[in-house]
Amino acid sequence: MSKKILIIDDDMDLCTLLGRFLTKNGYEVEMAYSGSKGITKFTEGKFDLVICDYRLGDMEGINVLTSLRKENPSVKVLMITGYSDIKTAVEVIKMGAYDYIVKPLIPDEVLNVVNKAIQSTAPVAAAPVDNTASGNKVRAGKTSGADGEFMIGKASATRALYDQINIVAGTNYSIILYGESGTGKEVIAKTIHDRSNRNGKPFVAMDCGTLSKELAGSELFGHVKGAFTGALQDKEGHFELADGGTLFLDEVGNLSLDVQATLLRVIQERKFKRVGGNKEMNVDVRIIVASNENLQDAYRKGKFREDLYHRFNEFSVNLPPLRQRQDDILAFAEFFLDKTSTELGKEVAGIEDSVMQTFLQYSWPGNLREFRNVVRRAVLLTPAGEKISAASLPWEITNANSLAAAAGPEKPAATTSPISIPAPKKELDLKDAASRAEYETIMAVLQQVNFNKKKAAEMLNIDRKTLYNKIKNFQDQE
């Protein structure tokens, strides 16, 4: 029996075209050209899905959503909204919409979202949803993120990334995720899990970069009481916790070769023993791993087992850095602003255009993680009711152009000059020259290490406190 969809939209042409398209793809469709008529049709019939435009002639789509949920709290509603209305999209998810569709409508994307909504058995949360960091889920429309809400952008690099995710998610392939720090590898792993047949089972993440050789075995496979000093009771490992679901191993290249050998046997045999135990336990997990470095290069250098690499490399995905996703930057700025305002219970008036331009020009070496933290800091420093200005941004962002100019042998013609460096005095003494040379050296090193002050201090052979003091002195001299 075909599934029944109700389309509520005051644009009769769009309504007709969308209805014909869904009918051709096996759905039974009814249409209403106003919010009130849509609500009436819904109460009189039984529908598996409702597609509603956010802006209707007689009422807002969010009011329609509220009325439909009063009639049937488990109704699945897809809201049609404009790409620029990021806050609107987040709001409809909070109010209980299953997902949203962005104008202009792209048939394949619409069909993909409709199919997922129809096939999904997950209950829709009662509105309003929990607004804490772990409460909201947003996916192209919504997806669950490693740290709560996560927005999917629309840049071409982002689309290509999610095309790959949609292809591989429904399989049991092991996957390697490559990407710079802060690009959201754990979020992508969780998204793959959520779109797989294992989405009702556990998703367990483990950071291999923080584990010593001695602890790695216990964390992966668990241990029995008395297995080693400090093992005061039995402990479940990450494999056991993820049984039936997905295990995400971040920075897997940091595992010792001994642990890699044990891991290989477990993946091959689908059995493991707890450290210090004799009982073999069966396990069924899908493994997704992540690495900053190319694991193929690592095994060629002898730092990673080649056989384990081939076990993992059934499919690989490269996460684009934020600097390659220019079309997403403004949308992410608004999204992080909305999220932080909710978190802090503080409303700011928005973001100044000059700050948005700074965001577009900055290289974002820390990617989405850095971007989120910059916006969080800015919201905290901005008085309620005012717009975020350059004064609330970190020094390395507002001075990025000057840092880049100081770093390279060729200085590009800059249209702006965030740092005002005084012209040399006519009588330039040795102290002034030394200070200027020190400034340029520090700026060059900071640029080289993507403004990582710890690494910069190490390269300059000074401690971090000294580096911070010198940077502050340069700022004071402006």
Structural description of this entry:
33% of the residues are buried. This protein folds into 4 domains: 126 residues, Response regulator (Rossmann fold); 161 residues, Rossmann fold; 71 residues, Orthogonal Bundle (Helicase, Ruva Protein, domain 3); 65 residues, Homeodomain-like (Arc Repressor Mutant, subunit A). The chain starts with a strand and ends with a helix. The protein is of the alpha/beta class and 478 residues long. A hairpin with a 2-residue loop joins strand 6 and strand 7. The longest helix is centred in the last third of the chain and has 19 residues. The protein contains 20 helices and 16 strands. Helix 2 runs parallel beside helix 3, helix 6 packs across helix 7 and helix 13 packs across helix 15. It has a 5-stranded parallel β-sheet with strand order 2-1-3-4-5, sandwiched between helices. This is Sigma-54 dependent transcriptional regulator. Keywords: ATP-binding, Nucleotide-binding, Phosphoprotein, Transcription, Transcription regulation. It comes from Terrimonas ginsenosidimutans. InterPro entries: AAA+_ATPase, AAA_lid_NorR, CheY-like_superfamily, Homeodomain-like_sf, HTH_Fis, P-loop_NTPase, Sig_transdc_resp-reg_receiver, Sigma_54_int. Pfam families: AAA_lid_14, HTH_8, Response_reg, Sigma54_activat.
